[in-house]
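Input (DUF58 domain-containing protein):
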Amino acid sequence: MLTRDGFNLVVACFLMSLVTTTVIVYPPLTLSLFAVTVFTLSYALMTARHLKTLKPTDFAFSRKVEPSQPRPGEPFEVYVSVTNKASKPLNVTVVDGLGGLQLVQGMTSVVKLLKPGDVAELRYYVRPPARGVYSLGPLAIKVADDYGVCCRYITLEKEAKVLVRPALSEKPKLLEGVKWVQALSVSGTGSSVKYGADDVFREITEHQEGQPLKSIDWRRTARDDGEIYVRKYDKLNRLKVLFLIDCTVSNTVGKPSMLDTIISAVASVSRAMLEKGDVVTVRALGALEPDSYTAAGARSFEGLTRFLTWLKPGYSFDFLKEIDKAKGFDAVFLLGRLSFVDGGQLKNAGEQVRRHGGVFFTVIPVLEPDDGIGRLLLQLEMSRIENLKRQAGFISVVKQHELPQYLSHLHRMLKAAAS
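Output:
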């Protein structure tokens, strides 16, 4: 295709030829301009045909992101290299795209004459504003001739996804202000009459007299010298925990948003729960793509964070239908502003969960305003929460930045009640 300069050149040749043949009739000038026009068109056609022979395989490219798992609000480095594998020099312009990322330092394009085997490099820094899924690319190359008349665009990579996972709190400390929460009565898997608490393997030791034969590890027992080994187990009382996250647009207020704060807090406390052997289920209420994810064991934490990263705010949900799915859990956490839930629904939800042997927590985080308008909005929010309390009973109101510590505190109380 023609570049802007090439298009202007062709148009100028046509206009000058038209003028010399209709207005200024001078045969030598007309002939020379006609020759220039024919030469320009011939050059453009031949160059375009030559550039058409180039393929994406004539270039080798790589993209590296450091660190490989970016954190919200923290810049990360992107390095892109493109190598000319063709047998001739090429004038290239390498352009990389940013999908939702903020450019902090460097350039996302470079112009260079690449000889065979030469490399064009891009190095820049970008920052993700919040948790979510972003994209790098498409990585495109513009190849032009020596005079800038024709060019061809080649896309080497359509798009590369960058997952910015929720920020995790490293070992959150207990809050001094958390002195009392509702009374807990949790049993976990230990309440099973048939199975009891789960047996978790701990170690293999030498057999001692009086130990049961059913614990003998036959694969580790040496029959030649008579040594016998047994397996030792710990009794683990697992808890089945459900997090109900209000993902409606009403939780997008604040910076960082309330939804991002809730997701970060859930990810942090879920990691501690999974390390303790508990089973965690997260269900998104009102998200654009409502779904749930169940994690059991520390190895499944990666999948849980990936699920939380993809959550996007939606509009509304059927709260009663979601509570019907909350049966069989030892603890249910309802987190968010709950703008689409009334006090009567909250009261019925708590009674239904407790009727099936679970503990129901309703936690509403609030912003910490620093101006007059924000404080006025906080008063309105607290008035709405007080109306919910009068109908639903116990509701925890927690400052936004204290939510991870508060959930960690509740988790420790759950484990203490179940032991």
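The longest helix spans residues 27-52.
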